[in-house]
Design brief:
It is a single chain. It is built from 9 helices and no strands. It is mainly alpha-helical. Helix 4 runs antiparallel to helix 9. The longest helix has 18 residues.
Length: 166
């Protein structure tokens, strides 16, 4: 979904703040690290490769998501979304996403899934009703095919830069 001609796009810095608040870059890195760890367990990746991948930082992926924010969200939407994901409810929603990521790849869970109070659920539902919430949580504009392809290419490049094949 492209940004309308009248809405001002966020700056790269504002976009990066949202990506970091949502921990999208950390999520991409964590998924990569968990996959390589599973590869080591299954004998298809080396412990050296896992050690290298484990030393990478979320910033390896920030630019991919930030570019998508700039392309699809307004400055106001970015501000609203950043505020939401920096809030207690937003942080719990992000933690739930990490819990689900670990569950999907069969990785051990560090903690139980976060629980939401009725008030927190209402707060989350109210955010979903905003333009920012609609784009991020319903339309999932930062999870489109183009973003997934870029993340996949970055993962391949990073894994290759860690030496022997995974």
């Amino acid at each position: 979904m492209a940004l309308s001609a009248r809405a001002q796009a966020p700056s790269a810095e504002q976009a990066a703040m949202l990506v970091q608040a949502m921990q999208l870059d950390k999520s991409a890195l964590t998924g990569m690290q968990l996959s390589v760890a599973r590869g080591v367990k299954n004998g298809v990746a080396s412990p050296e490769k896992q050690n290298c991948v484990d030393k990478l930082r979320p910033a390896e992926f920030t630019d991919i998501f930030s570019t998508a924010v700039v392309r699809t969200m307004s400055q106001l939407e970015t501000k609203q979304a950043t505020e939401f994901f920096q809030s207690r409810v937003g942080q719990k929603a992000t933690a739930l996403g990490f819990h689900e990521l670990h569950r999907q790849v069969g990785a051990p869970l560090d903690a139980p899934a976060p629980q939401f109070s009725e008030a927190e659920l209402r707060s989350h539902q109210e955010f979903v009703k905003t333009s920012a919430g609609e784009k991020l949580l319903v339309q999932q504009v930062l999870s489109g095919a183009d973003v997934k392809v870029q993340v996949g290419q970055r993962i391949k490049s990073l894994v290759a830069s860690c030496g022997s094949s995974a």
